[in-house]
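Throughout this chapter, every protein is written as a compact record of paired, labelled lines. An example of such a record is reproduced below:
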Amino acid sequence: MNKFRFRRAVCLLLSAAALLLSLSACSREDFNMFFGIEKMPQNIDPQKASSYSELLTVRNCFKGLTRLLPNGDAELDIADGYTVSDDGLMYTFALKEGLTWSDKSDVTADDFVFAFERASNPDTKAPQADLLNNIDSVSADDRLTVVFRLKKADQNFLARLTNPVFMPCSRTFFEKCGGKYGLSQKYIITNGNFRVKSWSDGSFVRLVRVTAGSKKQSVANSVYLSVSAKGKDCVSRVADKEVGMTVDSGSFIYSKDISSLSSSSEYRTAYAIVFNKDTAVGSNKNITDAFAMAVHREYYMSRCSKEIRNTASVFPDDATICGRDISELITVPKYIYNYDPEAARSSFLKGVSELNKKTFPSVEILAVDDPASRSVLNDVVSKWQSDLGAYVNIKTVKDTAALSSLVSKGDYTVAFIPMPTDAIEAAKALASGGSIHIGNDELDKAVSKIDDTKPVDEISSHINDAALILSGTSQVIPIISTPTTLLWDKKYQNVTYFKTDMTVDFSAIYKIG
């Protein structure tokens, strides 16, 4: 072989090798994803979903008229288009052609009518039923036309429709279920990117992709929502590669090494100390002022995990208004009570002298049994004892639901309450008719003006008024805010989630390597 032919052969071989490497690099192989959850869903029913695992499943298995984007905006999903009447009271949506349920039956306008009928029926006990309060009626003009008639114009209606309670429900299928709709794989049909393939007792839910994924990237064909058989926490499971993704509300990430994982956090919970206005201690302003002035923020913040944030307002800087960061809309008034042990002691003694027995009674502070927040509360209470001579016993309850039940009944003197960083929800909880209700007439008047159907700027103005009032009361003492953190294997790319509830869109994720 002459030199020219030899060089040509070598070049051809090198070109072929480069082509093979290129094809190998671009090859795709779909995969199974494992997502660690703490508790199994009790139902897979958009009108009744409330827990994280339920909302996660519903958002991936069902589609509504609109869908939420990661930035909080809404866009059309299975609606092809819509019109709004001049007075803003009637929205007419046209469904896309050819939509089907997982049992091959057609998705029709009546499925949205029936979903509204179910959710608005008190017997359903829909957790998101309050989102329907402004809807006068929902009707189907024909198979593909849904009409919403509102009681008053709602500037945020498209975003409101992204919530699971508005997702469709087949009347025909529901009536075949005999009261078991959404309670097992047999009694579920879906219209989203995934369907429920299997649902084991206490172990996992398997979701299988229905819609096509990327042709260039490896995507999840199946997603297993998995509970640890050994009771292992989800952060340890994802760190140990037992699952590829999980979400943590703050109990475990403080003590685990998560440097090998990708993560994203949203500060979804703010903790505040709240006094019951209907008790001798909670109604005594000198005593509540004393407790407020004996909160040593520098002390407890120097001792807690760096992921925990101090909050100097009931509406922290990471709070939201209609899905937007509060800091973009208002400058939140700061809490006026600073650490002053001498003034606190003087106010405390004066307050105790006003009590019937002239002695500070035995008092318990209710708190959720959560390691992260509990450590901060221990530091707060220890300062109350050393600075005031006030002994307050911490009584823990198993979860937020148990605490909320006791507080809403008024069965407490002091409570360390986890509050949503949604400013509207937090304000309404503290006002008349709310689950906490601190009995402040000024606050009640301010909150009564908050109407989430109004423009965001108008809502923000009323939230600012409420924040000003709350900054000057010692009955609600803001302490910390804690993160909800999504953790995932670094091989997963394009991970997007909904800020409102931290649920993940599995259809968008692809894997590299």
The chain has 14 helices and 23 strands. Confidence is low (pLDDT under 50) at residues 1-26. The longest strand covers residues 262-275.
